[in-house]
Amino acid sequence: MKTLTIREITEAVNGRIIAGPSDSCVNGVSTDSRTVKEGDLFVALIGARSDAHDYLSQVAAAGAKAVIVSDEEKTLSALGADTKVTAVLVEDTLQALLDLGGYYLRNLGYRHVFGVTGSVGKTSTKDFLGSVLSQKFRTVCSTKNHNSVYGLPLCIFELDPEAEAAVLEMGITDRDSMSKLADMVRPEAAVISNIGISHLEYFPEEKREGILKAKLSVTRYFDENSVLAVYSNNDILHELNLEERGIKGRLLKVGTEPECDFMISGVKDKGSDGIEFSLTYEQKTYNIKLGIPGAHNAVNGSLAIAIGVSYGLTMEEAVKGLENAVITEHRLDVKETRGIKIIDDSYNAAPDSMFSAMNTLMATPIGEDGRHVAILGDIGELGSEREAGHRAVGEYAFSKEIGTVLAVGKDSKYIFDGWMDAALAEGHRIKKVNEVPLILVDDDTGCAVEYFDSAEMVIGGVRDHIKAGDVVLVKASHFMGFDRIVARLMEE
């Protein structure tokens, strides 16, 4: 991180120094009292279950140079009158973190800043876009999926100051989060990969139109030269018109329809070996081989190419950048151990991405005497669509004739129910073979579905459940901690 002076910080966050010197500097930013290093600035966030002002004395002892606070009484009590730690008082410490992140980003002087958002596919698209742009610019990306109002500012402070372009993932964590991120990042170009039903809990009345409006906040700082790339097969993005919504800039449509600016065709899902597809631009077709699994990545990769070409790359350069991409772990990340192939997609989930991941699973060949196994867990932020979304996953799993489905978590009982109801609707003969865990077997296909109410129930016995030759998909929303299931399977 580039050094920041206390005066810069105070001005950037519209704060007031209430203790300590005003002429010092900081060389790092932290919001976690346990990881504060000497010379850091600590931002005292207040959460639903904890108040970081309670840890100011520990932060000072760890060597923090300065703190941003909103509780003057707690601060002065913790630090004392003669403190060497500078305390900057603000009304809202989270907003101060965002303001400082925006100030720091703009002072890096990057030539270009890009935003990536969408209901699904954000992180992979961010990784693809970073790889594509790196063919022309020295490009940095936000790390992992740190896309929230809490995580993205901290990523910004760690960006390479020598870069020319930044690709930043921007996610929704409440109704106003995208607007706050847009004010901080101010991207000149952006991608919206999809508008699905994730985050519906934040928009109970507006539904998907509310999600769209929130995502479109990414364009708030657009001008006439800005570019927005969208997946136009998505029903709600298909009808998007920037002018009607008062948005400046140019819309690039990516999809399978002939009128798209970038037309996708001939997608071949090769399972864990990746995908092949064709992309047509200005009446010329390019054949692309991507070693990253998931047919949906034809869309994510094409969105990245669309932005790259609009910023001066040739199609050949953009395709090369895409084919060289490396994506963030736990996203259709293929691993092998003891003759078992694991498709680790444990970082996040939505109904659409569940469908795509199951397609990838079934396109991956099994070994001798092996099975296709899907370990599927709860999907968060579905709001009123919670039951329907999970049921749809179960119905799809049945339709794909996956050998064994493990539905894990409270809401995943609806995955189990969806599988069972789909089987009965098809007239299949279903028998119950166990109560805890609850296991049903389809006598007509030999496929089975099992229900566990927690990940802990699976972790203990999953190694006994999976055998050599199996191909195993592991997927759920991040809060389910399914990376622990992957880790257990990978143990030697």
List the uncertain runs: none
Strand residues, percent: 15-25%
Question: What is the number of domains?
Answer: 3
Q: Averaging pLDDT over every residue, what do you get?
A: 95
Specify the biggest β-sheet: 9 strands, mixed
Q: What does the overall shape look like?
A: globular
* CATH-defined superfamily of the largest domain: Mur-like, catalytic domain
Oligomer: single chain
Do you know the CATH architecture of the largest domain? 3-Layer(aba) Sandwich
Based on secondary structure, the structural category is alpha/beta
The strand count comes to 24
| C-alpha end-to-end distance | 39 Å
Radius of gyration: 24 Å
Helix content: 25-40%
Total of helices: 16
CATH topology of the largest domain: UDP-N-acetylmuramoyl-L-alanine:D-glutamate ligase
Q: Specify the CATH class of the largest domain.
A: Alpha Beta
Strand order of the largest sheet: 9-10-8-11-12-13-14-15-16
Question: Could you characterize the architecture of this molecule?
Answer:
- There is one protein chain.
- By secondary structure, the protein is of the alpha/beta class.
- It folds into three domains: about 5-90, MurE/MurF, N-terminal domain (Udp-n-acetylmuramoylalanyl-d-glutamate--2,6- Diaminopimelate Ligase, Chain: A, domain 1, 3-Layer(aba) Sandwich); about 110-325, UDP-N-acetylmuramoyl-L-alanine:D-glutamate ligase, CATH 3.40.1190.10; about 335-490, Mur ligase, C-terminal domain (Protein-Tyrosine Phosphatase, Chain A, Alpha-Beta Complex), CATH 3.90.190.
- About 30% of the residues lie in helices and about 25% in strands.
- The chain has helices spanning about 5-10, 55-60, 70-80, 95-110, 120-135, 150-155, 175-185, 205-215, 235-240, 295-310, 315-325, 350-360, 385-400, 415-425, 455-465, 485-490, and strands at about 5, 15-20, 25, 30, 40-45, 65-70, 85-90, 110-115, 140, 165-170, 190, 225-230, 250-255, 260-270, 275-280, 285-290, 335, 340-345, 370-375, 405-410, 430-435, 440, 450, 470-475.
- The strands form four sheets. It has a nine-stranded mixed β-sheet with strand order 9-10-8-11-12-13-14-15-16, covered by helices on one side. An eight-stranded mixed β-sheet has the order 17-18-24-19-20-23-22-21, with helices on both faces.
- The longest helix is centred in the first third of the chain and has 16 residues, at about 95-110.
- The two termini are about 40 Å apart.
- The mean pLDDT is about 95.
